[in-house]
Each structure stands twice: as C-alpha cells, then as structure tokens.
Amino acid sequence: MLARVSSWLYDLVESGKQAITTTHSLEAVKIIAGVSDKSKVILSSLEDGVLISREMQVEEVEKLEEEGIDVRIGEGLLL
User: Fold this and answer.
1) Angle, vertex CA 57, rays to CA 71 and CA 63, nearest 5
2) Most buried in the list 46, 53, 70, 74, measured by CB within 10 Å?
3) Measured between alpha carbons, how far is 60 from 32 in angstroms, rounded to an integer?
4) Mapped to the 3 state alphabet, what secondary structure does the chain carry?
C-alpha cells in the first residue's frame, strides 16, 4: 500500500504538481521521500504560538536515525 502511495505521489510531482503529506511514521517518511530527489522532509513545531521548521533530505533523517536520534521527538536538538 505504501509503495502505491509513493508511486502516485511521485507521478504527481513529476507532472509538475505539488504534493504535501503528513505522517508520524519514519517508515513512511523514508519510503515516500525516498522516491524522488525533489522530495523534502519538513520538521515543524509550534512554540508559544510561533511555527518553527527545518527542511531536511531523507538521507539526513536516515543518518540521524542511525545515530539514535528520532526526528519525531528530537525537536529540541533539531529545531
């Protein structure tokens, strides 16, 4: 199922459309963002009513995971 969604999103992006997805699943992030060099992972957090964010590539997410940092809960270190 995730492979089908990834393929569908890839086709959308390659046809010139913008696709925005959200997930808490690291597996989904790595699979979906890994299908295209155009993919970006955006980490975001709301602090005192201010949205802060950081743009990352899937390779950076994977490297952090290898180092034991879970990007879903590592906002204090990453943002």
Assistant:
1) 55
2) 74
3) 14
4) CHHHHHHHHHHHHHCCCCCCCCCCCHHHHHHHHCCCCCCCEEEEEEECCEEEEEEECHHHHHHHHHCCCCCCCCHHHHC
Quote the pLDDT of residue 62: 93
| pLDDT tens, residue by residue, 54-78 | 999 999 999 999 999 999 887 777 7
Rg over CA atoms, the chain: 13
Which tokens belong to 25?
């699943």
Are 79 and 53 a contacting pair, CB within 8 Å? Answer: yes
pTM of the model: 0.75
Q: To which residue do tokens 């963002």 refer?
A: 33
Tokens 């699979």 correspond to: 31
- Amino acid type, 43: L
